[in-house]
Amino acid sequence: DKYKSGLSKTRGSFSSKINNLVARYRQVDEDFFDDLEEILIQADVGVNTVMDLVDELKMEVKRQNIKDSSMLKDVISEKLVEIYAGDEETVKAELNLQPNDLSIFLFVGVNGVGKTTSIGKLAHQLSEQGKKVVLVAGDTFRAGAIEQLDVWGQRVGVEVIKHSEGSDPAAVIYDGIQAARSRNADVLLCDTAGRLQNKVNLMNELSKVKRVIEREVPSAPHEVLLVLDATTGQNALSQAKTFSEATNVTGIVLTKLDGTAKGGIVLAIRKELNIPVKYVGLGEKVTDLEVFDAQAFVYGLFA
Ligand code: GDP
Questions:
Q1: Burial class (CB in 10 A: 0-12, 13-18, 19+), 151
Q2: pLDDT tens across 263-293, in order?
Q3: In the chain, what is the straight-line distance between the N-terminal and C-terminal CA atoms, in Å?
Q4: 256 in the Ramachandran plot: left (φ > 0), alpha (ψ -120 to 50) or beta?
Q5: Phi first, then psi: what are they for 179, rounded to 5°?
Q6: What are the alphabetically sorted keywords of the record (predicted)?
Q7: How far apart (Å, rounded) are the C-alpha atoms in residues 60 and 76?
């Protein structure tokens, strides 16, 4: 399936290292755990997450009196799912869609992470589900951003509301809301600027956009989706921290998982930021966006 092929790089490196480890150590001892830590850190799982995981594994080894390292593989995958899912029954995070009303989703993230592509892919998915989608080109700063969103709109057959380059992003978002209402749309997907050269400016701009949305629709935005590029590793984590200080991020779209051997970043994000990963990008095609499923993800790593 999609997860298996999209995660082939991470799986190739991760599961072969784990298999190697298990082959090298018959006994589960301190050295075994040191090497395991190293493998997990290299997969970008994140130092804190790795420490917690290894502590829990050690306890589990005692509890079940595990001696043979080959028996530990299943325990590792179970623990990874547990870490991801926490106490919750469900490991899949659904989008906060308003059943009988306009849903407004704001996309934020640094230039180049795959924001426009993810908006296009999600617009396609929602349209396929029979929803009427409108896009609004809120990145009025970067040259070409408006046109790029427009191309995606044409590709997936949804309308794009836009102003000219350099205009006020809050004004175009306002127009987007009016247009979505007058067309009886189900979902409005808002692109925003992603220049991080001037962080304070960008964060002010995002707050203003958010205020305009809230004034028009008090329950909105129904999602603030932060788009992160999995190939940037720990950088993605620091971007997530910056954006969640400025806006209330409700979910993450993690792109380009197909392009990295360090898919462990998914676990680091969940553990260190406590923001659910809602979607993952597994390629450049319009259909390469998957609802994130922790179980499928972890089993995909070991498959
Ligand atoms: P933006 O600046 O954040 O809007 O980024 P774009 O949407 O323009 O994407 C930047 C590049 O990343 C483009 O070449 C996309 O095709 C590529 N891209 C986006 N998502 C994915 C993904 O999930 N996998 C891969 N392999 N490439 C992606």
A1: middle
A2: 888 888 887 888 889 999 999 999 999 998 8
A3: 11
A4: left
A5: -65, -45
A6: Cell membrane, Cytoplasm, GTP-binding, Hydrolase, Membrane, Nucleotide-binding, Receptor
A7: 10
Binding residues for GTP: 109-116, 191-195, 255-258
The alpha carbon of 160 and the centre of ligand 1 are apart by a number of angstroms equal to 19
Q: Atom 22, ligand 1: which residue's CA is nearest?
A: 256
d(CA 8, CA 259): 9
Omega before residue 276 within 30° of 0, cis? no
Q: Which residues contact 122 (CB under 8 A, 6 or more apart)?
A: 105, 189, 253, 279, 289
pTM of the model: 0.91
How far apart CA 266 and CA 256 sit, in angstroms, is: 12
Does residue 6's CB lie within 6 angstroms of at least one atom of ligand 1? no
Of 166, 225, 144, nearest to 190 (Cα)?
225
Using the atom order of ligand 1, give the atom closest to the CA of residue 113.
3
Q: Output the CA angle 86-103-245, nearest 5 degrees.
A: 55
CA distances to 106, 163, 252, 271, 276 from 282, rounded to whole Å, are: 21, 31, 14, 22, 17
Q: How far is the CA of 256 from the centre of ligand 1 (A)?
A: 7
Which range is least confidently modeled, 116-125, 162-171, 230-239, 263-272?
263-272
Residues in the chain: 303
Phi-psi region of 38 (alpha: psi -120 to 50; beta: other; left: phi over 0): alpha
Q: What residues form DSSP beta bridges with 107?
A: 225
